[in-house]
Specification:
Layout: E1 3-6, H1 15-28, E2 32-37, E3 73-76, E4 79-82, H2 89-101, H3 105-114, E5 119-124, H4 131-136, E6 142-144, H5 151-155, H6 157-161, H7 164-184, H8 186-196, H9 199-219, H10 224-236, H11 241-266, H12 269-274, H13 276-300, H14 305-314, H15 321-331, H16 337-364, E7 385-388, H17 392-403, E8 408-412, H18 415-423, E9 429-430, H19 436-441, E10 449-452, H20 457-470, E11 476-480, H21 483-491, E12 496-499, H22 502-515, H23 520-544
Parallel strand pairs: 1-5, 1-6, 2-4, 2-5, 7-8, 7-10, 8-9, 10-11, 11-12
Antiparallel strand pairs: 3-4
Length: 562
C-alpha cells in the first residue's frame, strides 16, 4: 500500500504538522491512514490526541518485536498512530544501528502494515539525513519536502532526496547503455580475443560480461539478476554464441545443479505441509492458465491446432527464473518467506508434472498429419524410371536420366520436400514407397527400372522386398547407408546397390594422393586397386558375413611415418 515520507533538510519548517494535516485530509475521504513517527522528538502523536504521559511506542520494542503493527494505536475516524515512544539513548542508537546495517530490519517490522489492504502510511521523518530516511528510500512511493527559502535548506536538499527523482532515469539509462554496448561492442570485443585464441580467455570474458552487466544494473538501482539475464540475451545474439555455449557447457551442469540445490534447501517442508491444499489447487490452475495463454499466442502467430497444443504442453511448467524472482521479492519484503516457500513449491511441482503431461499428450493426442494442400498424390503414373525419394541422392540421380531424355516418375512422402522441388521446376508426386498400392499407382509394374533412394534405411529395405516380390522382372537399384546395409540389400535380392559415401570417399582419396605428390596415373592405379579390393571383400562378405575378407583391408598398424 502507498507509503508517503514527509521529510525536510532541517527542523522547524512544519514537517510534523504537514504529516498530521495530510493524514486527516486522507481520512476524511474514507481512506484508512497510519501516521508513522520516525522522529525521536515523538511529537506526531500529539496531533492525534495521544497524551504526553503516554509512553507507548515501537522503537523500544523494535529489536525483540518482529511485527510493529502490535504497537499501533487507534485515533478514531480511520486514523491509526504508530508513535516513536519514550526511549533511552542506548535504545535509540541500537534502533539506528539496525536501520543502517540490517537490510531486512525495517521490511520485517513494517511488512504487515505496508501489505494491509487499503492502508495509506504517512511517515514523519527526522530532520536532515538519517538512517531512517535512507532505509525507507527504497520503500517509499512519494517524498514530501517542506522547505524554507534559506541556504541551509537548499544545501542539504540533495542528501534528503537521495536521488529519488533521478533514480528512474538512471535505471533506464543503465538498461539502454547495456543494450547499446551489447549490440555494438560485444562482437568486436570477442573478435579481438579470438585472435589470441584460448578457450579459457573466452570463458573468462563471457563471465566478465555477465558480472559487469549485473554490477551496472545494481549501480542503476535495479536487480543484479536483471543484469545477468540481459547479458545472457545479448550473448545469445552474438556471432560467437556457439563457441561461448561450447565453452561454458562444462560449467552449466555443475552450476545448474548447485542452483537447484539452493532452491531445494530454501524450501520449508513444514510450510508446504501446512499449505498442501493451496498447492494442490494452485498447481493445476497455474499450468492450465499458462497453457491457455501459450496456446492462444501460438494460434495468433498462425500455428496450427496440433502445434499450438504441443507448445502449450511443453511449456506448461514454471521457469527457473521464477526462483530468482521469488528470492528477490522476499528479500525486498514484497512477499513473506512463507509465501516464497509456497510459490517455490508450486513451480517445482509443475516441473515434476510436465514430463508426465507430455507422455499423456503423446499417447492421447494423434500425431499431426502433414498438410497436403496443393500436392498431387501418385495415381496412374507411367514412366521408364521410377525414383522413390527425392532427397539429396535422388536429385543427383535424376540429372543424367533427364539428360538422356528418359521419362521419370518421382514419389516422395515429405510434403515440404515436394513443395521445395516444385520451386525448382520438378514434378514430384506424394506417395509412400513402402506401400504396395502406392507402388502400383506410381507405375512400378510397368517401369523399366526402380530406384529406391529415400532418407530412411528401413524404408529402403521395405521397398526392395516389395519390388522384388511383386515386380520381379523390374530391376531395382537401391541406396545403401553403410556396408552392413549393403549386405542386407543383397540378401533381399536387389539388382544393384551403392553405399552413398563410397564414390565420394574414393574421389577424395585420389585427390589426397595427388596433393601429396603422386602423379595422376599412379593415383588412378591405386584407386583401381582399392576398388578391386573392396569388390572382392564384398563378395566374401556376402558369403561369410561382415567379418570375412578382413585380410584385404589395408591397416596402419604395421606402418610408421617416414
Amino acid at each position: 500500500m502507498p507509503l508517503i515520507c514527509v521529510c525536510s533538510p532541517k527542523g522547524g519548517v512544519g514537517k510534523t504538522t504537514l504529516a498530521a494535516n495530510l493524514a486527516y485530509s486522507l481520512a476524511r475521504t474514507g481512506s484508512k491512514v497510519l501516521a508513522l513517527d520516525f522522529d525521536v522528538q515523538n511529537a506526531l502523536r500529539l496531533h492525534f490526541g495521544v497524551p504526553l504521559n503516554d509512553e507507548r511506542g515501537y522503537v523500544a520494542k523494535a529489536l525483540e518485536l518482529h511485527d510493529w503493527s502490535q504497537c499501533v494505536l487507534s485515533a478514531g475516524s480511520n486514523i491509526f498512530v504508530l508513535p516513536y515512544g519514550e526511549v533511552s539513548e542506548a535504545q535509540r542508537q541500537a534502533f539506528d544501528e539496525q536501520l543502517t546495517h540490517n537490510d531486512h530490519f525495517l521490511q520485517r517490522g513494517l511488512s504487515a502494515l505496508l501489505n494491509y489492504p487499503g492502508l495509506i502510511t504517512i511517515a514523519d521523518m527526522p530532520p536532515g539525513p538519517s538512517p531512517a530516511l535512507k532505509a525507507l528510500t527504497g520503500l517509499a512511493d512519494l517524498h514530501l519536502i517542506p522547505l524554507l527559502a534559506d541556504t541551509a535548506s537548499m544545501s542539504t536538499l540533495a542528501h534528503v532526496e537521495k536521488q529519488r527523482l533521478t533514480g528512474a532515469a538512471i535505471g533506464i539509462g543503465s538498461i539502454a547503455a547495456l543494450i547499446v554496448g551489447g549490440l555494438y561492442l560485444l562482437n568486436p570485443f570477442f573478435s579481438l580475443l579470438a585472435r589470441f585464441g584460448g578457450r579459457e580467455v573466452m570463458t573468462a570474458a563471457a563471465l566478465l560480461v555477465v558480472l559487469g552487466s549485473a554490477l551496472l544494473m545494481q549501480a542503476g538501482g535495479l536487480s543484479m539478476a536483471m543484469g545477468a539475464f540481459l547479458a545472457g540475451v545479448l550473448l545469445s545474439e552474438s556471432t560467437f554464441r556457439h563457441q561461448l555455449e561450447a565453452d561454458v557447457e562444462p560449467f552449466r551442469g555443475l552450476l545448474l545443479g548447485l542452483f537447484f540445490l539452493g532452491v531445494g534447501m530454501a524450501l520449508n517442508l513444514t510450510t508446504i505441509a501446512e499449505n498442501w491444499l493451496l498447492i494442490v489447487i494452485c498447481v493445476p490452475a497455474y499450468m492450465i492458465l499458462k497453457m491457455l495463454v501459450i496456446y492462444c499466442v501460438a494460434r495468433i502467430w498462425k500455428a496450427n491446432k496440433a502445434e499450438a497444443l504441443e507448445r502449450a504442453v511443453l511449456m506448461a511448467q514454471g521457469g527457473e527464473f521464477a526462483f530468482v524472482l521469488y528470492a528477490a521479492a522476499a528479500g525486498a519484503g514484497v512477499i513473506t518467506q512463507q509465501d516464497r516457500a509456497v510459490l517455490t513449491a508450486i513451480v517445482i511441482v509443475s516441473m515434476v508434472l510436465t514430463p508426465l503431461l507430455i507422455i499423456l499428450h503423446d499417447r492421447l493426442v494423434p500425431k499431426a498429419q502433414p498438410s497436403l494442400d496443393g500436392i498431387e498424390a501418385a495415381r496412374d503414373l507411367h514412366a521408364q524410371a521410377l525414383i522413390i525419394g527425392f532427397g539429396r541422392m535422388g536429385q543427383v540421380i535424376s540429372q543424367p536420366l533427364l539428360a538422356r531424355g528418359y521419362s521419370l516418375s518421382v514419389i516422395e512422402k515429405d510434403p515440404q520436400m515436394i513443395r521445395d522441388a516444385d520451386e525448382f521446376g520438378f514434378k514430384v508426386w506424394y506417395g509412400d514407397g513402402t506401400r504396395l498400392d502406392v507402388l502400383r499407382a506410381a507405375g512400378a509394374e510397368n517401369a523399366s527400372i526402380i530406384i529406391a533412394v529415400p532418407d530412411d534405411k528401413e524404408a529402403v529395405n521395405r521397398i526392395t522386398e516389395l519390388a522384388k516380390a511383386e515386380f520381379p522382372m523390374v530391376p531395382v537399384l537401391a541406396r545403401a547407408f553403410d556396408r552392413e546395409h549393403a549386405l542386407e540389400l543383397v540378401q533381399h535380392g536387389v539388382d544393384y546397390q551403392m553405399r552413398e559415401t563410397l564414390q565420394s570417399a574414393i574421389a577424395m582419396g585420389r585427390e589426397a594422393l595427388i596433393r601429396l605428390g603422386d602423379d595422376d596415373e599412379v593415383a588412378d592405379e591405386v584407386m583401381a586397386d582399392i576398388r578391386n579390393r573392396d569388390a572382392e571383400r564384398f563378395e566374401l562378405e556376402c558369403v561369410g558375413g561382415l567379418s570375412a575378407g578382413v585380410a584385404l583391408i589395408l591397416s596402419n598398424r604395421n606402418t610408421s611415418p617416414d
